[in-house]
Design brief:
It is a single chain. About 75% of the residues lie in helices and about 0% in strands. It is mostly helical. The protein starts with a helix and ends in an 11-residue tail after the last helix. It folds into two domains: about 1-45; about 50-90, no CATH class.
Length: about 90
Amino acid sequence: MAIWEALAGEQPEAHIKATAAEMAKLEDQNKKLAAELAALQAAALAAPEPTIDATVARAADASKAIELDEAATRKLIDHQLQPRAGRPTPRA
């Protein structure tokens, strides 16, 4: 028997149950977030034109106030590229 076959057979039942419970929890969270997104999208579509224009204008004003130098931009991008497991992305 190859080592990978031996290791594959060693998954404890508790780990399998924990994984199933975590998947159910994540699926429930995903359903709630999808419903929240749908509600927000419907509210945005129903918003009157002046409200949308005002929101866009405020967003444009806010974006002008943000000043990022190269180091800050690099830090922001590195943070966004980190894997979800929390492990840092290796640097080249």
